[in-house]
Design brief:
Strands 4-3-2-1-7-6-5 form a seven-stranded antiparallel β-sheet. The radius of gyration is 17 Å and the shape is globular. The protein has about 160 residues and is of the alpha+beta class.
């Protein structure tokens, strides 16, 4: 999946897409939440665990409360947990990201053949923002749970030809 021969220090984080569900398994039962870190050499899928998100949410809520924010302000601060999670990993050395969490994985950019972003309306009538990454070996179907425009911008910033 990922090239272990990437020279340490040559890989740079270019952009992030927080709060992405990677679809897997029969009827999506194996789907998991990730932050996508786009680097100069790889696309790194960092697993977002409930424990990590709860800790970040609690810290954000406590910070807002210490600033005198009411319930609404605390909930607003807490809503940034996915973004903070992604920023934390984006600040790390990309090689260290994969070592830090065994449930994370990476795809070499050289194997990517197509990237598509679109909004669809499945049979249940609920709109879904989808990100599809095709590689020479696999197709990754994802749901962008945050802003589709921000995901599009992140992919363009990282140099992907998105359609």
């Amino acid at each position: 999946m990922s090239d272990p021969t990437v020279a340490q220090g040559t890989e740079q984080v270019l952009a992030t897409i927080p709060n992405v569900t990677v679809k897997a398994g029969f009827m999506g039962f194996g789907s998991r939440l990730h932050s996508v870190i786009l680097t100069s050499h790889r696309i790194i899928f960092v697993r977002e665990t409930m424990a990590a998100l709860k800790k970040i949410s609690g810290d954000l809520r406590a910070e807002a409360k210490s600033k005198g924010e009411g319930w609404t302000g605390q909930m607003g601060a807490q809503s940034k947990a996915h973004e903070i999670f992604a920023q934390t990993y984006a600040a790390m050395n990309p090689a260290a990201i994969l070592v830090n969490d065994p449930n994370s994985f990476a795809v070499d950019r050289s194997t990517v053949t197509d990237v598509k972003v679109k909004t669809v309306t499945p049979a249940d009538g609920v709109q879904e923002d989808r990100l599809t990454i095709k590689t020479t070996g696999k197709k990754y179907k994802c749901v962008v749970n945050g802003s589709l425009a921000d995901a599009w911008e992140a992919l363009a910033t990282a140099g992907f030809d998105v359609h």
